[in-house]
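4.2 Preliminary Data

To establish feasibility before requesting continued support, the project team ran the inverse folding procedure on a target of 436 residues. The structure was first converted into the token representation described in Section 3, and no sequence information of any kind was made available to the design step. The complete token record follows.
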């Protein structure tokens, strides 16, 4: 329709990114919920499952590095399209494999495809939002990680009630293609979007001018090409983002893939039925995503420099995460649910601010590259951590005390955040230039 405009179009973009992230995490979580069934059918050990998770994580790490750079070159619209087509096909192909090796292969393809989600999403936020709104926007899209898991808790048991585990993969994998239609209809960069109002376009354009002032020659090299990887690795702010992902991401992967098994073994929950404890925990992570973004964005609106606001939010997260240290001493299921809910929510608040910090410290031309590099670091951590998880759980299972292995892991998780915050603080101490 000629002249048709949509007010605040950027929030429609966030809705698209939210649902894309939701499908991303729905597809990766399915195997965790089906773990008890698949273990019985295929006689998996905890180490077998850990290897399957590691295969996904290794591919995810490799894909993040590739997609981060590729999206900066091909653009957000095409990059996200390629990503979701690959991962949706891989998700569906889980239904046809029958061995540990076969599951490992399809998890590799799934990991490669899913790795494009966050580099594309964070770049889209940088393209469409001023700094004071990026925290909230990132929090909303990052909430898709939690909603995807919650959706899986409903969808997987419902499908299993009527069909086999194979249909779970067919149906959930197909959802990505439904989302793709909406993406291709509605997403373009602001300068090419005909449905955006002039007022909103001017708001976005003013942010672009400020970016030129903030980043100077970081925006482009002398010949007009984007900044090279070698230059990015020379910057302390790159290592701050890498650290915030490498040591922290594996903790959420642990929550994501092993919590269903933990509650099944410690409290004998039936994972073939909707689980209220897991629903509460993953709902809390949604609150953490949005609350973490709201906290740092609120500080910026009060006049705080952007980097200082993000660091303050990360420090609060690190202190609150200490609560999970009490989980090993809790014997009541609802006390454990409360402690893990807080820890998982705080993690998502942390993740939201790390992602947003990347868009504050770098020009949008290289945001996907930085998010990809840091995401790869987080995925590498995710490769290494399951080795420890699988070893501890198998060792304690032999002793007849599987819960004891989980308790050690909770202590490791809770003590990591403040250590990482200290490293980030030291790396960014001299970063005054991009603080607006």
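Position-by-position output of the design step:
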């Amino acid at each position: 329709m000629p002249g048709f405009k949509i007010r605040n179009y950027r929030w429609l973009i966030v809705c698209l990114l939210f649902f894309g992230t939701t499908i991303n995490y729905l597809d990766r979580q399915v195997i965790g919920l089906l773990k008890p069934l698949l273990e019985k059918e295929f006689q998996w050990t905890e180490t077998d499952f850990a290897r399957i998770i590691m295969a996904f994580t290794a591919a995810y790490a490799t894909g993040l590095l590739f997609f981060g750079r590729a999206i900066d070159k091909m653009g957000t619209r095409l990059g996200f399209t390629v990503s979701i087509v690959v991962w949706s096909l891989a998700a569906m192909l889980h239904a046809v494999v029958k061995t540990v090796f076969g599951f490992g292969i399809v998890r590799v393809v799934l990991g490669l495809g899913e790795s494009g989600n966050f580099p594309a999403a964070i770049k889209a936020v940088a393209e469409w939002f001023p700094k004071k709104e990026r925290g909230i926007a990132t929090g909303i899209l990052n909430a898709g990680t939690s909603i995807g898991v919650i959706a899986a808790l409903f969808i997987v048991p419902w499908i299993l009630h009527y069909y086999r585990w194979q249909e779970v993969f067919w149906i959930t994998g197909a959802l990505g293609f439904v989302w793709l239609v909406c993406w291709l209809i509605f997403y373009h960069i602001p300068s090419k979007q005909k449905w955006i109002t002039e007022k909103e376009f001017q708001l976005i354009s003013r942010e672009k001018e400020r970016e030129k002032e903030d980043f100077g020659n970081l925006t482009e090299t002398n010949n007009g090409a984007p900044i090279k990887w070698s230059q990015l690795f020379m910057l302390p702010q790159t290592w701050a983002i890498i650290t915030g992902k490498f040591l922290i991401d594996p903790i959420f992967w642990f929550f994501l893939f092993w919590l269903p098994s933990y509650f099944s073994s410690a409290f004998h929950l039936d994972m073939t039925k909707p689980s209220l404890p897991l629903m509460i925990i993953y709902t809390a992570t949604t609150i953490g995503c949005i609350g973490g973004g709201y906290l740092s964005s609120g500080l910026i609106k009060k006049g705080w420099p952007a980097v200082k606001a993000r660091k303050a939010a990360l420090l609060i997260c690190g202190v609150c995460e200490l609560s999970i240290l009490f989980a090993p001493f809790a014997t009541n299921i609802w006390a454990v649910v409360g402690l893990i809910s807080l820890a998982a929510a705080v993690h998502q608040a942390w993740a939201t601010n790390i992602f947003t910090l990347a868009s504050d410290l770098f020009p949008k031309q290289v945001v996907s590259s930085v998010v990809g590099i840091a995401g790869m670091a987080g995925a590498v951590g995710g490769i290494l951590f399951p080795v420890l998880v699988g070893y501890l759980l198998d060792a304690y299972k032999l002793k007849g005390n599987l819960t004891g292995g989980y308790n050690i892991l909770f202590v490791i998780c809770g003590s990591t955040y403040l250590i990482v915050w200290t490293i980030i603080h030291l790396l960014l101490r001299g970063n005054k230039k991009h603080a607006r």
